[in-house]
Amino acid sequence: MAGNARHVGRSVTSRALAVLAAFDGRHRCLSLSQISRRAELSLTTTHRLLGELQCWGALKRRDDGTYVIGRRLWELGLLAPVHSGLREVAAPYLHDIHATTLATVHLAVLDNNRALYLDRIYGHSSVPVVSTVGSRLPLHATGVGKVLLAHAPKTVSTGVLGSLERITAYTIIQPGRLNRQLEAVRTEGYATTAEEMSLGACSVAVGIHNHDGDVVAAIGVVIPKLGRELGRHLSVLQVSARSIGRQLGAGFRPAVTADSRA
């Protein structure tokens, strides 16, 4: 009875969405029992919904019985305005950055209390990178995230500063210290990280401004260390960010939400 009680009053749509929401950047492949637990649904209900979602193409069942996101959801996601606008405008500049720096290049926007990665070009070096296209990573531990957080609405910054998660030994979890960094981002126009998201990886990032001067996205590179090359990487990013911003339509804003929800 307890398993059934968990989804009393929930619509079929909300249950199906809960199944899909069980997947995220850290949970890309899940078993029936894992999905049931994360979606807070009974095994019977979860199994039925998985069958329907699999038939439609939203999920794919692998040979070992686990489930992954299906191609049809990916195809639908590419139709979102945030992809068809900003991503297309930025693409050639991301390739230019990659060609110049040989580093991993990121394009991200604010999505609630996370940085949503719209594009990534993988670098030639062996620097560890945890991001993938479509992943949502913490704002306080990533270069692009710090840029977005520095210019985020007050509700977002308050929520993030109130629950700083330690990811590595170098992640900044002191609100006062992070606040000082965010002020520097607003003053100096760029953000850096030093092994705060993954060991052996540093980053530098800048904001993309629309015609109104608002930061609507961020681009950055992941590099082995911050040193003499920082100035060169920063210069390349700044030139590209200005060029992308000039090409965005007046009043452009990415079609994602930015509120206090996690």
Helix and strand sequence: HHHHEEHHEEEHHHEEEH
Ends distance:
30 Å
Second CATH tier, the architecture of the largest domain: 2-Layer Sandwich
**In which range does the helix fraction lie?**
40-55%
Structural class: alpha+beta
Mean of the pLDDT scores?
88
Strand order of the largest sheet: 5-4-3-8-7-6
CATH class of the largest domain: Alpha Beta
Concise account of the structure shown:
The chain has ten helices and eight strands. The chain has 262 residues and is α+β, with helices and mostly antiparallel strands. The strands form two sheets. Strands 5-4-3-8-7-6 form a six-stranded antiparallel β-sheet, with helices on both faces.
List the keywords.
18% strand; 10 helices; two-stranded antiparallel sheet; six-stranded antiparallel β-sheet; 43% helix; Beta-Lactamase; alpha+beta; 262 residues; single chain; disordered N terminus; Arc Repressor Mutant, subunit A
Descriptive report:
With 262 residues, the protein is an alpha+beta fold. It has two domains: 2-75, Winged helix-like DNA-binding domain superfamily/Winged helix DNA-binding domain (Arc Repressor Mutant, subunit A, Orthogonal Bundle), CATH 1.10.10; 78-247, GAF domain (Beta-Lactamase, 2-Layer Sandwich), CATH 3.30.450.40. It has helices at 2-5, 12-21, 32-39, 43-56, 71-77, 81-101, 143-150, 154-161, 175-188, 230-247, and strands at 59-61, 67-69, 104-111, 114-121, 136-138, 190-194, 202-209, 215-223. The protein has a six-stranded antiparallel β-sheet, sandwiched between helices. Helix 6 packs antiparallel against helix 10 (230-247). The longest helix has 21 residues, at 81-101. The protein is globular.
